[in-house]
Write a structure and sequence with these properties.
- By secondary structure, the chain is an all-alpha fold.
- The protein has three domains: 1-93, Tetratricopeptide repeat domain (Serine Threonine Protein Phosphatase 5, Tetratricopeptide repeat), CATH 1.25.40.10; 111-195, Serine Threonine Protein Phosphatase 5, Tetratricopeptide repeat (Alpha Horseshoe), CATH 1.25.40.10; 260-336, no CATH class.
- The chain is built from 20 helices and no strands.
- It has helices at residues 2-8, 12-25, 30-42, 46-58, 63-76, 79-92, 97-109, 113-126, 131-145, 147-160, 165-177, 181-194, 199-208, 211-224, 229-241, 245-258, 263-276, 279-292, 298-304, 314-336.
- The mean pLDDT is 92.
C-alpha cells in the first residue's frame, strides 16, 4: 500500500493524503478507515485516531473497530470510556472473544477480580471453544482461590475442547508451579497420548525430564514432529547447555526460519548470540528479527501487548523478552537448589 511506504519513509502527511484520497474514492472501506486510524495512532495522534474510529462506529463498524476504539482509550488511561466501548461492542458482537478478553483484563488491572471472573465466565458461554478465555479464567482462579479451582476450570476446558495441547500444557504447568511434580508427569503422559504430534507438549516434556534423559526424550520428540519449531528450539537449548555452539546456532536458525513470526525463538537466538556470538552474529539476528516483525509467541505477546509497551519497536520488545528469559532461567536454577 502506497500510504504504508510513505509512512515508513517518514512522510506522515503524504501517507495521510493518500488515505484521504482512498476513502474519498471508497468511503465505506473499513480497511481504509483502520489504516488511517493506525497511521494516527502509531504516530502519537490519539485524538485524530479517536475521531476516525468514532466515524467508523457511526457507519456500523465491525468488531475490529470496537476493539481498536477500546485500545485507544486503554492507552489514554480512560478506563470508564474503555469499559463503555467494550460493553457496547459486546452488545453488537457477543461472540467476538477479544472484547470479552479485554473487558476481563480491564477488571483485573483495576483489581476487580470477582468482576473479571464473571466477565470471563460470560465470555465462555458465548465462546466455549476459546482457549484464551479458558486460560485467563484458570489463571484468575489460581490467583484468587488456589490450585484446586484452577484444576477444575482446566478439566472443564479440556472436556469442551478435547485434544487441545495448550490446555494440557496449562494443566501440567499449574501442577509444576505448586511443586506437584508427579501429578505434572502423569498429566504430561496423558497429554502426549491425546496429542501425540504436538510440538509444544514435546518441547515442554524435554525440559521436564532430568538432564540425563533429555537426549532420549528429544529423539522421541523428533520422531513424532521433526519439523516443529518448538521441538527444534528445545533441542537447540540442549546443544547450548552442552556448549555445542555451532550445533545450537544451526538449530536456533532452523527454528526462526520455520517460524519467523514467533518472537520467543528470535529472543532465544539473540540471547544465545549475546552469550556465544560475535558482534556481527548479534547484529545479523537483530536485523533479521526486525525484518520478520514477529507478532506471536507466549513470552513475546506477554510483553508486546502490555499497555506500557505499546508502540515499542521490534528491537525494544526483543531485548525485553531476552531479559525476561534470563530472569526465568535464574528462578528455575534457584528453585532446583
Amino acid at each position: 500500500m502506497g500510504a504504508k511506504e510513505k509512512w515508513l519513509a517518514g512522510d506522515v502527511p503524504a501517507a495521510r493524503a493518500i488515505l484521504q484520497e482512498a476513502y474519498a474514492a471508497i468511503p465505506n472501506s473499513e480497511e481504509i478507515w483502520l489504516a488511517a486510524f493506525k497511521l494516527e495512532f502509531e504516530n502519537h495522534e490519539p485524538e485524530r485516531a479517536r475521531m476516525l474510529l468514532a466515524k467508523a462506529r457511526e457507519r456500523g463498524g465491525t468488531e475490529r473497530v470496537w476493539m481498536k476504539s477500546a485500545i485507544v482509550e486503554r492507552e489514554l488511561g480512560n478506563t470508564d470510556e474503555e469499559r463503555r466501548l467494550l460493553d457496547e461492542g459486546l452488545k453488537h458482537f457477543p461472540s467476538f472473544f477479544k472484547l470479552w478478553l479485554m473487558l476481563g483484563q480491564l477488571e483485573e488491572r483495576l483489581g476487580y477480580l470477582e468482576k473479571a471472573k464473571s466477565v470471563y465466565e460470560s465470555g465462555l458461554k458465548h465462546c466455549p471453544n476459546c482457549v484464551t478465555l479458558w486460560l485467563s479464567l484458570s489463571n484468575l482462579e489460581e490467583k484468587m482461590n488456589g490450585l484446586s479451582k484452577a484444576r477444575a476450570v482446566l478439566t472443564m476446558a479440556r472436556k469442551k475442547n478435547p485434544q487441545n495441547p495448550e490446555l494440557w500444557l496449562a494443566a501440567v504447568r499449574a501442577e509444576s508451579r505448586h511443586g506437584y511434580k508427579k501429578e505434572a508427569d502423569i498429566l504430561m503422559a496423558k497429554a502426549l497420548q491425546e496429542c501425540p504430534n504436538s510440538g509444544i507438549l514435546w518441547a515442554a516434556s524435554i525440559e521436564m525430564v532430568p538432564r540425563p534423559q533429555r537426549k532420549t526424550k528429544s529423539m522421541d520428540a523428533l520422531k513424532k514432529c521433526d519439523h516443529d519449531p518448538h521441538v527444534i528450539a528445545a533441542v537447540a537449548k540442549l546443544f547450548w547447555h552442552d556448549r555445542k555452539v555451532d550445533k545450537a546456532r544451526n538449530w536456533l536458525n532452523r527454528a526462526v526460519t520455520l517460524a519467523p513470526d514467533i518472537g520467543d525463538f528470535w529472543a532465544l537466538y539473540y540471547k544465545f548470540e549475546l552469550q556465544h556470538g560475535t558482534e556481527d552474529n548479534q547484529k545479523d539476528v537483530l536485523k533479521r528479527c526486525i525484518a520478520a516483525e514477529p507478532k506471536h509467541g507466549e513470552k513475546w505477546q506477554a510483553i508486546s501487548k502490555a499497555v506500557e509497551n505499546s508502540h515499542q519497536p521490534t528491537e525494544a520488545i526483543l531485548k525485553k523478552v531476552v531479559v525476561a528469559l534470563g530472569k526465568e532461567e535464574s528462578s528455575a536454577e534457584s528453585s532446583k537448589h
